Structures are given as structure tokens and as C-alpha cells.
Amino acid sequence: MSWFIRKEKGINTPTEMKREAPDGLWYQCPNCKKVMHTREHKMNAYTCVHCNYHEKIGSTEYFALLFDDNLFTELDANMTSADPLHFVDTKAYPERVKSTIGKTGLKDAVRSGYGKMNDLEVTIACMDFNFIGGSMGSVVGEKIARAIDHSLKTRTPFLMISRSGGARMMEAGFSLMQMAKTSAKLALLSEARIPYVSLLTDPTTGGVTASFAMQGDFNIAEPGALIGFAGPRVIRETIGKNLPEGFQSAEFVLEHGFLDFIVDRKDLKDKVTSLFRMLE
Questions:
Q1: Of 60, 99, 151, 240, which residue has the fewest beta carbons closer than 10 angstroms?
Q2: Where do the CATH 3.90.226.10 domains begin and end in the chain?
Q3: Based on the number of CB atoms within 10 Å of its own CB, is 70 exposed (0-12), middle (13-18) or buried (19 or more)?
Q4: How far apart are CA 231 and CA 107, in angstroms?
Q5: Are the C-beta atoms of residues 156 and 114 closer than 8 Å to each other?
Q6: Rounded to whole angstroms, how far apart are CA atoms 195 and 201?
Q7: Do residues 47 and 55 make contact, with C-beta atoms less than 8 angstroms apart?
Q8: Cα–Cα nearest to 276, from 223, 218, 192
Q9: Which of 61, 89, 94, 279 is nearest to 189 (CA)?
């Protein structure tokens, strides 16, 4: 005869004693659907520990990964978009900008700053997709141009991290002008023989791809990043042909000679530092 007999099957916990798991404690990979601890995911540079899926991140995360001890000085931190064209003769665009600033805490779709990366002085500009799809408006072009000016003035290597849906339609021609402005500034950087590395992340499309994102001394990308100009449906309807599977992935673009190499985010800091030192 056993010393202990359970009269009721199972363990009954009173409702008032039950506790919910805190929000944000676990991360589920959208690719392989496996679950990992959020802290583990962050320590792995926001990549899945099971399938290496690269989660989409913004300037805050990239700056923390790249700048030594996350110490940097931000450039033009308070620059915001105006409404030069009075888009659709309403206040819709200014209100959307104001609303997006409130939701994201960002002033526009790019942030720039300078500091040390593996003890090397660098200037970095990074786009934020959460701000109106990372669209390129006047502020984006101006902040990138000024970041390049800082690189020229201090003779520090320049890293551009792109993630964008393309030109900002609410600024029309003003948006398209940023392609020429940034390209002209990069030409000055090249003449001064100051290294420029362009990192394309998921997604990099439209006018951004057609300008500064593809003009680096080295054009590199993260695994699986979508890179292209127009969307697959538009291209298919234009040329009247079916497109190869994955034709806008970083791997396909690399295979066809438009990228120099693909870099895992966990190796990004060391790889880019090595490139800058080699180019210098």
C-alpha cells in the first residue's frame, strides 16, 4: 500500500493563482515557426537560432549592433518633412507625418550618425521602414546628403543601410530629385577616395535601388533580402513573360552580378570594418 494516494486526478490551480506569461518574452520565427526566447533572438543579432531568418529591424537596432557600445552622435536628428506640393489639396500628408512620428518616435525614414565601429571612425545612415514604408522624400535625401558631407569633412568611411519601398509619392518630383542629389554627393565621395559600402536589406526597391543603394564601392546584402526596382506583377505585365522563382532575392541578384557578396548580420560589423580598412 502506497503512503500517498491522490484523491483527485490532475493539479488544480485556483484561477486567482494563475499568471499569464509577460508580453514580448518569446519570439516566434515567421519563417520556420519555431519559438525562442526574445533575449536569445536579440543576442543572435535578431536572427533565428534555428533557420537563420533575418528579422526586419530598424536604425535603433543596427546602430546598437554596429557602433561600439552603442555610442554615437546623431546628425540632423530633428529634421522633419514639410508639404511642399500640398498633396491632394488637403492636410492628409502633414497629418500622416505627425501621426507616424507619434507612433514610431522617428522624425523621418532615415537616421544618421557617426562614431566608432571596431575602433574605426565611421559615418552611418540607416533607413527605417516603419516610417511610411521607408519611402524616400526630401528629408531622406537631405539627411543622406548631409551624412555624406560629414564623411567628406572628416574623411571617415560611409555606410548606407537601405530598406525602402521607393520614392515617397506625396512629394512627387521633390522625391525623385533625391536620386540625383544623393548620387552627386556620392560622386564627390568617390573623387575624394573615401570608402562607401552600401548594405541592402529586406526590402530595397524603387528609386532607392536606382540610386544610392547600388552605387557603393561594395554593394552587399543580407540573406533573403528582396531587392529590385518594380514589383514582380508590374514587370510580368510589362514584359509579358513569367519570371523565375525568387528572381528578386539577394541570392538571385548576387548570382547575376549585381551584388559583391551576402553577409550574415552576425558578421556584419567585422565584415564591414574589414572592407573599410582594405579600401583605405
A1: 240
A2: 57-279
A3: exposed
A4: 27
A5: yes
A6: 20
A7: yes
A8: 218
A9: 279
Q: How far apart are CA 243 and CA 182, in angstroms?
A: 31
Task: Check pLDDT > 90 for residue 15.
Answer: no
How far is Cα 182 from Cα 142, in angstroms, rounded to an integer?
Answer: 8
Is residue 251 a contact partner of residue 224, using CB atoms and an 8 Å limit?
A: yes
Domain 57-279 has CATH 3.90.226.10: yes
What residue type is 188 in one-letter code? L
In the structure, what pLDDT confidence band is assigned to residue 20 with cuts at 50, 70 and 90?
A: low
Give φ, ψ of 218 to 5 degrees.
Answer: -130, 130
DSSP 217-250: SEEEE-TT-BB-SS-HHHHHHHHTSPPPTTTTBH
Q: What angle do CA 122, 261, 233 make, to 5 degrees?
A: 110
SS3 call for 20: coil
Phi, psi (rounded to 5 degrees) for 135: -70, 145
Cell numbers 521607393 correspond to what residue? 166
pLDDT band at 91 (very low <50, low <70, confident <90, very high): confident
Q: CB within 8 A of 174, min separation 6: which ones?
A: 84, 85, 137, 138
- Tens-place pLDDT, residues 93-109: 999 999 999 999 999 99
Around Cβ 221, how many Cβ atoms within 10 Å?
A: 27
Q: Which three cell numbers stand for residue 121?
A: 571612425
